[in-house]
Amino acid sequence: MKKLIVIATLIAAAAVGGIIWIFQPQQELLSACIAKERCGYINDEGKFIIAPEFEAANDWTKDAGLVWRGGRVGSIDRDGRYITEPRSSRLTMSGGANSVQVNRQQLLTDYALRPLNSELWDDFYGIKLDRRLSHAPEYIAVGRGGLYGLADGKGRVILEPKYEEIGWRSHEFPLLFKEGNLFGHLAEGGQPISAQRWDAAGMFHNKLASVSRAGKCGYIDRAGLVVIPPAFDECRPFRYSEATIVRKEQSFSLVGRNGVVIRDGLADAGNPSADGMPIAVRVQDKWGALDMKGNFPIAAEFDGVEPLDVFDPEPMMPLGPKTVAFIVEFQGKRGIMDAAGKWILPPRFDQVDNNYEGDGKLATFRDGELWGFVDLETRKATTASWNEVKATSRAVLVPVRVGSKWGYVDAEGNMRISAQFDLAEDFHGVWASVQTGEKWGLIDSKGAQVTPVVFRSVHEVTPERARVTLAESRGWVTRKGRLMGISETDLQKAGLRK
Questions:
Q1: DSSP track, 177-244
Q2: E strand intervals along 311-410
Q3: Which three-class secondary structure state does DSSP give residue 491?
Q4: Is 243:228 a contact under the CB 8 Å cutoff?
């Protein structure tokens, strides 16, 4: 009996150990090339896990890496064994979907180049409902003979090609399609939501889509039923769920999703944002901003109002901008207001701008020939002191140009790293890449070198590491300055090894 108990205990322990092993996170693999056409994969300690024996190697995706040999692309697993042998000379990616070329046509594959189905297509593009870049498309538009059909993300054909266009830029079902120069919408099963066809139509946003016939537009729901009759000359998308902008002749109105006009008599209007921020509008000859309930948080008494927009700072396929504040023009000068109509920056400046690709925290302003910047959340503004400001995102230090050289200042505008570089990029965490002459390096927030300025390029900088190119090597450097995936020959040529 005791022996059976011991055996059972050992089996249980082994099972638990197996579970622990199975759920241990796998090491991240990074592509690295120690010379031209000598590429492989290293772990986060810089050790080659897959020998550098390929002509090229893409970054790792899930459980596979794409590699090239003999001018052809294939995929390997973590042991360096082929998942898909290198057979195709051409890899195509579109909307997150992949294909390889076969007889001048496209064979759909997954991320490891495994065929999704056996059919060959003339064209394809992914349709992503989840806009994050790391996610594979849930559907794929497939084309043959100038017509398009629909497959799911696993390659199962839902609809054979029959439409002139289908699902472009879509992020929500039903999908827009074009047939004989008329438009309709498809449900997830590949069937039209109704027999109605329209002269023009828009994509669905928040379960409503614009449609038009005989020059007049309205809106339909996901069952194809008309919920706002075609009575307008222009219909903007319902990017925000509660209201949008429509136009009848020369007059613009804010209309709710039930078709009720919330505010009319507008001489001009901007586009609604996805987050429901107020919309820049003109009443007679003055500009203000209108909220979704028809109120004016920014009174219509200015010479100009325009949104400061950014795309989502998360790694997503952009669908539309988000408004973070408003540029307000008054008597020839510009300032910044928030969504409640309070000044962030008084209207004393010649120009106001921001970076569409930034995080929406900082904006820049020009006074005469010099630039400054303001934090839109804390409302702290520097003086206008520099020839250029690169205010992409809020960070420990911000790049500024003085004359022809770049340095860094803090949030108060104090110069912390003197203007000495030919180019300076944003800080990521507590380091940033800089260029002197034709070479690049990395510095910390005190201006000290994390790496010497010896690299051909530095990019993909994160708070933990950056990709670097040195002579023929293409590897990585850690935040502590440790080089990984760089050949000894190149290190010696650069004076980094004796």
A1: EEETTEEEEE-TTS-BSSS--BSEE---BTTBEEEEETTEEEEE-TTS-EEEEEEESEE---SSSSEE
A2: 322-330, 333-337, 343-349, 351-353, 362-367, 370-375, 388-389, 398-402, 405-409
A3: helix
A4: no
Neighbours of 136 (CB within 10 A): 17
Q: Report the C-alpha gap between 485 and 470 in whole angstroms.
A: 10
Q: All domains of the chain, ordered by start, with CATH?
A: 1-87 (2.40.10), 90-155 (no CATH), 172-235 (2.40.10), 395-498 (no CATH)
What's the DSSP call for residue 369? T
pTM for this prediction: 0.88
For residue 399, which of 374, 417, 381 has the smallest C-alpha distance?
A: 417
Quick one: tokens of 390? 């690169």
Single-letter residue type at 365: F
Tens of pLDDT, residue by residue over 87-141, are 999 999 999 999 999 999 999 999 999 999 999 999 999 999 988 878 899 999 9
Main-chain dihedrals φ then ψ at residue 23, nearest 5 degrees? -95, 5
How many angstroms separate the CA atoms of 219 and 242, rounded? 13
Contact 417, 443 (CB under 8 A): yes
pLDDT band (50, 70, 90) for residue 168:
confident
Count the neighbouring beta carbons within 10 Å of the beta carbon of residue 483: 20
- Within 8 A by CB and 6+ apart from 306, the residues are 270, 280, 326, 327
